[in-house]
Amino acid sequence: MPDQIAAVILARDEAENIVPCVESVRWADRTVVIVDPRNTDDTPLLAAQAGAEVLVNPFENYAQQRNDALELVNAEWILFIDADERSSAAQAAEIRATVERPAHHGYWIPRRNYIFGRLTRHTGWFPDYQMRLLRRGHAHYDPQRHVHELVILEGEAGYLTEPFIHYNYRDLKHFHEKQRRYVAFDARILHEQGIRPRPHKFITRPLWHFYWRFITLEGYKDGLHGLRLSLLMAWYELQKYRELRRLDRDS
C-alpha cells in the first residue's frame, strides 16, 4: 500500500536548511530528500539523521527531477517543498483534510516570502502561489520548462490557504546569484520562442517591470524595501534583454 502523503525535498548543498525543513514536514507519512550525486556538503547525512529517506538521483533540470520524484516515491499525494521553505501545523491540518476528500488532482499553495530577512507582503511576493500538492499519476511537469516549472494537470487545480514560509534571498549576494541564473534561463526561453530584442524594449521593458512591481503589485506598501526590490527586478529585466541580444547575435 502506498503512503497517503509524502513530502519530497529536492536538495543540493542545503546543509544550512535541510534539518529545519525536514522537521517541519514530520507530519507527513513519509519524508524523502532527493539529492544530486554532485552534492558537496553534509546534506544527505543531515537529512538521514533528521529522519528522512535519502535518494540519490542525477540532476539535469528541475522539471526532470520533479518528474523523477513522481515516479520514484510511492505515495498517493506528493507535497513538494524546497529546502528553504517550512511547513506548519496549520498547513498539515489543511492538507490532511483536503486529501481525505479531494476535489482536484493538484493544489496551489501560497508562500510568505522573507527577503533580506524581511517579510515581503507585496511587490509580487505574496500570495506567490506554487502548485506543490499533486496526486501521483494525475500530474507531471512540462519537460521543456527547465526552471519556473509548469505542472500539466488532469482537470482544474484547487487552492489552499495555509502558506509555506519561504526564506528567500538571504542577502544581496544571494539575490544576484539567483537572478543571474533566472536571466539566463528566461532569455533562452524567449530566444527559442523566436522573440527578438527590439531596441525600444531595452527601455520600455525595465520601465514597465518597475511600474508593475511598485504600482500594480503595490510594492510601495513595502516602503523602501519594496522600492529596492522593484528597482532590482527592473534591472534584471534589462539584463534579460541584454542576454537575449547576445543569444540573437550568436545564433
Overview of this protein structure:
The structure is a single chain. The protein is of the alpha/beta class and 251 residues long. The chain folds into 2 domains: 3-168, Spore Coat Polysaccharide Biosynthesis Protein SpsA, Chain A (Alpha-Beta Complex), CATH 3.90.550.10; 172-250, no CATH class. The chain is built from 7 helices and 13 strands. The strands form 3 sheets. Strands 3-2-1-4-9-6-12 form a 7-stranded mixed β-sheet, with helices on both faces. Strand 1, helix 1 and strand 2 form a beta-alpha-beta unit. Helix 5 crosses helix 7 (223-250) and helix 6 packs antiparallel against helix 7. The protein is globular.
Largest sheet: 7 strands, mixed
Number of domains as seen in the coordinates: 2
Structural class: alpha/beta
Strand content: 15-25%
Going across the major beta sheet, what is the strand order? Answer: 3-2-1-4-9-6-12
Element pattern in H and E = EHEHEHEEHEEEEEEEEHHH
> Share of helix among residues?
40-55%
Overall, the morphology is globular
Rounded to an integer, what's the Rg over CA atoms?
19 Å
Strand segment count: 13
Mean pLDDT: 95
Q: What is the terminal separation in angstroms?
A: 52 Å
CATH class of the largest domain: Alpha Beta
